[in-house]
Amino acid sequence: MATSEQSCIELKSILQARALQPLFQPIVALNSAQIFGYEALIRGPSNSPLHSPLQLFKTALSCNALAELELLCRELSIAAFAIAGVTSKLFLNVNPLLLLTADHPSGLTKAMLQKAGLDPSQVVIEISEQYQVEEASLLIKAVKHYRDLGFLIAIDDLGSGFSGLKLWSELQPDFVKIDRYFISEIHRDPTKKAFVKNIISLAKATGALIIAEGIETQEELFQCKELGADFAQGYLLGRPNVSFMQNLANKLLLEVKPTLQSQVNILQLLSTVAPISASLTALQVATRFEQDHRLQTLAVVNNNNKPVGLICRSELQALFSQNFGRALNEKRTIAQIMNTKAVIVDAGCSLDEVSNIVAEDEHSAASWYFIICRDGHYLGLGSVRQLLKKVSEAKLQHARYANPLTFLPGNVPIYQEIDKLLAKGTDFAVAYLDLNHFKPFNDIYGYSKGDAVLQLLAEIIQHKTAGLSCFIGHIGGDDFVLISTQVAIEPLCNGILIEFANRIKAYYEPEHQEQQGIHALNRMGESCFYPMLSLSIGVAFPDPTLCHTHHDVAALSTAAKFNAKQMGGNALFLSRRRGPAQLHSNLLARPSAD
User: Fold this and answer.
1) The pLDDT of residue 591 is above 80
2) CA-CA distance, 67 to 96, in Å (whole number)?
């Protein structure tokens, strides 16, 4: 008997016995670290050559049993999902080719849901781009049928075929799943990063939500989150399983966010070297050094485990090497000869704070180490050498993320500052500053003078916030961000507007000053008059209970800036919105059709 014939017999046996095992893989919302839904997957019997889904569906296609197999998969998945009592979304894979067949049972999926006690609005129909459909109009009609029944629609494997964007524009899906190829190693591949970034931008413009598929590393997860993906799916967050996972994804998402080295506390340099008692003799301490050649410095503590000094191997050896040095000193307590001016820092200090403290310490052998405490009690030692290394790395990292023109923090530090404030539940204000008519100014005066204007604005913001509790960032181009936790933001922004309006005049030629602007070509190639550069400032006051990530805050501040620009000239707009547009809530609340 031929192998293909054997496979068809095996498949028929499996279908008759309904011997398929549905599995479910979590899809996680990146803004809340909560499981949003599960994709239903299928496996054949473990002892069958058709256990693999790839082999199972390949055989079904060759045996003309694809429709029967897919409908059984759908029925079993819906039943298992309903029995589990899960309230999240169920993502079901549907072969678009089957949607086009004349004998495809209309309304059968809805009947399966009714039998299981589920609502169509809880189900997302995934249509894969892998299958090329020639009759696009028929596919659109079939998808409309599902949508009219109340189902949500997703395009699966975007980027795996050749017609993804065309399919996207025609189907107008609620979700778009980016193929794993573009997610794998995305943090190392600028081309993949650019592709995903553009797809996410397109999704934001069309109202679709993005799901990054196939995430296997924390670096991939962080990169997708930073680019603005809405959801994530992959082995890192949970493998396909019979049971429904609840907690793993939350933990991973909390761990994945990196911080700048300079913001990390000193505990990363902690070396847990056991201290010595201040009552030990110099000879006892020398013996301890001899027993462990790796020890260079020891902390000296009192009876309450509070540090009182440091003793360095080289200093003790120097003392003993003098004439009669050993005889004169070996019975003295270590408290009598230790360095009592040791640098002692708290475990909560940042690398920058400790670096400043150490820099002021007098140079001695013992000063190559410092003591780390918590609430005044000894924890361990830190190495100045390692501290300098970490601070150097931090400076390089800051340079990497800083804007090269103004040297202000760029996007990544801005995101981290906002996320840090949100995590603390701190009330804060975000001012988004944007120049009006900057491109025409660049076109007429050249990029060099345009750069000078950007540096002027950076200087004004820094001057007005000097000595205040503010964070200043340069997003790029002519966009700046000012974040304040304590300062009254309105008078501060008005001060920036007034100084900019006064100083910008000097950057124009006398004739342009006289006519209060310049003539330049617009995007259509037509000559237009543009008034002197002005500044729009939109201020948002994010509510930490409504905004979960910097993406939410960015949406708020961008909307505020847009309103400021609509006012014209040097303008300040204070937004009353505290949370992002409820896109997800609207999507979840979409009513289903009967």
Assistant:
1) no
2) 11
